[in-house]
Amino acid sequence: MSKQTNLLGFLKRKELECATTSIAEDHIPEPSPPIHEHNTLGTHQIENEDLIFSLERDPGLRAPMWHHPIEKRNEIRRAYLKLKPYQPILRNFPYSGPEGHRRSFQSSWYKKFPDWLEYSLSKDAAFCFLCYLFADKPNPHTNTFTMIRFNNWKRVNEGKNCPFVTHVGGLSSIHNNSLRSKINLLNDRGHIRHAFVSQEEAQIRKNRLRLETTIDVVRLLTLQACPLRGHDESANSDNKGNFLEFRKAFSRYNDEVSRAIEHTSYNAQYIAPSIQKEILHIISTKVRNYIREEIGESKFCIMVDEARDETKREKMAIVLRFVDKKGLIKERFFDLVHVTDTSAATLKKEVCSVFTKHKLFVENLRGQGYDGASNMRGEWNGLQALFLADCPYAYYVHCFAHRLQLALVAASKEVSPVHQFFSNLNFIINIIGASLKRHDELQANKGAEIETLLFRGELETGRGANQIGTLKKAGDTRWGSHLQSIRSLLNMYSATVSVLEHIMVDKSYNSHQRGDADIALNLMISYEFMFLSHLMREILGITDILCQALQRKSQDIANALKLVSTTKSLIQNLREDRWKAFVEEVNLFCQKHDSLVPEMGVIYVARKGRARRQQNQNTVEHHFRVNVFYVTIDKQLQEINSRFNDKALGLLTLTSVLAPYDRYKNFDCEQICTLAEKYYPSDFTTQEKIHLRYQLQHFLCEVKGDDPTLRNLSILQEPCQCLAETGKSDVYFLIDRLIRLVLTLPVSTATTERAFSGMKVMKTRLRNKMEDDFLADSLVIYIEREISKSFSIESIVDDFKSLKDRRVLFSA
């Protein structure tokens, strides 16, 4: 809060208004030790912007306005006005009253009284938003809609005697006085300061231009994930930090901006760190409000994941998935919340808190997508179970992308030869990448190899062809890295062998290094290593298409199920029909690199010198075919089948009958009706379920007719989009509703993974003092950049002006 001004203060000379006050709204920091992007509880942002998030939304639970300190009331009123009346929309409101005459609140009443009518979920009662804000003491004429709850619903439709109408009353009623108080509060010209201080339009233009420059710089730096502050922001500093330096650069190319920045009072520059965070919070709030408006009254899905930031603080990313009015699937990053622990109860509490702040209701939840951790997927105490207890139609779908990754990792750990292979692979790559000298030698050998092959005519030339590349290390946390690692080693096999051979004979290396190189070389030239490298390259290559598809931002379920089916089919085909071709490919590779190919008919010896202890007498072919080839493939199939075969898969399978590919070949009216009746009974009334069958019959006749609009489609999202574009969603509204519900189900939670990638870019080691709200606001702007860029500077200035009283005018 700024320092309070009395009446005599306005009668002083105008020049005094620009003097430095004891509490400045803005200031330039003095030279000091390293400044971190940190804020304290005493800043204006905490007092104003964060006040919005600490307010109780439910009108039946919040404290009366006269219980707040008088000097804080206007700030609280502004914060509530920014949030607007609390108007939850439920499918079924609670019934009350005597038996036989039970009635409930109706959401349609909001449209008749949009500016003040509120509903309390906790009290099942109606309240007046305006009277709550501007009634300074208890009043018998307003108590019914402020202190005493109103829930006598049978009286609402009594025409002129309707309690809502009588509450509004005439022009001089308490309610209308509250309305005028609201208008005066939001009208800057009503403030006493503006009654005495008259500023010309040119001055207002300078004030806005100065603030607009600040907003532009803050938004630009945040979109590029750049820090705002500098180590030394004093006047004599050579590098004042990104924000001040960019602001100075902006003014250099525009004289008007330069004059507005340079010729201003000390305490009205609007460049302080608290102002920067205030602007960030305004933009992020506008982004969240935009997303909330996109969702509207539609059903939505929540996708949650947790990770630790640079300072080891546990963060929970919240992503909302829904279908917009145009029929497009949207996955929006909504918030990043700090959690004290990762228990399911704590996660649910924080998620519900975010829901309440933004008028999102658990009753509208129609899907949950998590990564498969026990605190998420637990059938009894997991997060999904807690939400299912509140909303039985919030179906949990295990993240498909995590499923596939876990299946591959599990296979590598449970099959001993595969586990050893990946360990050896990392060992070899670590030796080569241990120094820049070896890396340079590797690339030089590969370059020489390419030149030789080109000279022989064994390689084709072309732009971008024959790149040298490098070895890539596999990581269990990086999706697809195992395949890239194997491909890179096979591509640079000869060059890698040459480097290892050189290390073995180079006396500049010590005995340990030469010994490691010898071990690595023996591993590389062994037939088992070559066999497994080709086998895992083949398996991972088949599954890579599915893995990449499941990581796309907007994946539709029918297409995902189809990819799962084709992936399993290809792996099964590799097992049953491609053994001979595969062995021939491995043998050719061995011959090309002068490696020995074992005789397949002889007895396989597991360890040299231990043949007497070996009980079985299997041949080499039997070992590689049965114990390695078959077992590895079977483990892959077993893991994929088990992880894609749960209760939710039944729902996903039913949704595939809605897919339009191959001219609606799988379109089945009976199964579609079963889908609506079994999985979405609360979204369709009994009459609508009957009517849905007839709509499906008409729809099927139309798509198989001459109209190509709905006929030539391939994925499930396209019919929804087409219905919205052509206006046929009003005709086939039940089909449109069902498709939207199905599209809401999450197939992959890769969006949350991208959020954590953004967090690592935003909160680095040098910015490890970023507080939670600052980081969350920055990430919302950074990730949802398309929305962030869409807001005009003027709208942001207007929001900034309306938050509280400012020292200067921003409008006439």
In short:
The chain is α/β, with parallel strands linked by helices and 812 residues long. Helices cover 53% and strands 6% of the residues.
Any chance you could write out the topology, listing elements then pairs?
Blueprint: H1 44-54, H2 73-83, E1 95-96, E2 103-104, H3 109-112, E3 117-120, E4 125-128, H4 129-134, H5 163-168, H6 174-186, H7 192-196, H8 201-223, H9 242-252, H10 255-262, H11 273-295, E5 300-308, E6 314-323, E7 329-338, H12 344-357, E8 365-370, H13 374-377, H14 383-390, E9 396-398, H15 400-414, H16 416-432, H17 436-456, H18 481-491, H19 493-505, H20 511-524, H21 527-550, H22 557-577, H23 579-592, H24 620-643, H25 647-655, H26 661-664, H27 669-679, H28 686-703, H29 717-726, H30 733-744, H31 750-762, H32 772-783, H33 785-790, H34 793-803
Parallel strand pairs: 5-8, 8-9
Antiparallel strand pairs: 1-2, 3-4, 5-6, 6-7
Helix pairs in contact: 1-2, 8-9, 8-10, 8-11, 8-34, 9-10, 11-32, 12-14, 15-16, 15-21, 15-24, 16-20, 17-19, 18-21, 19-20, 21-22, 21-23, 21-24, 22-24, 27-28, 29-30, 31-32
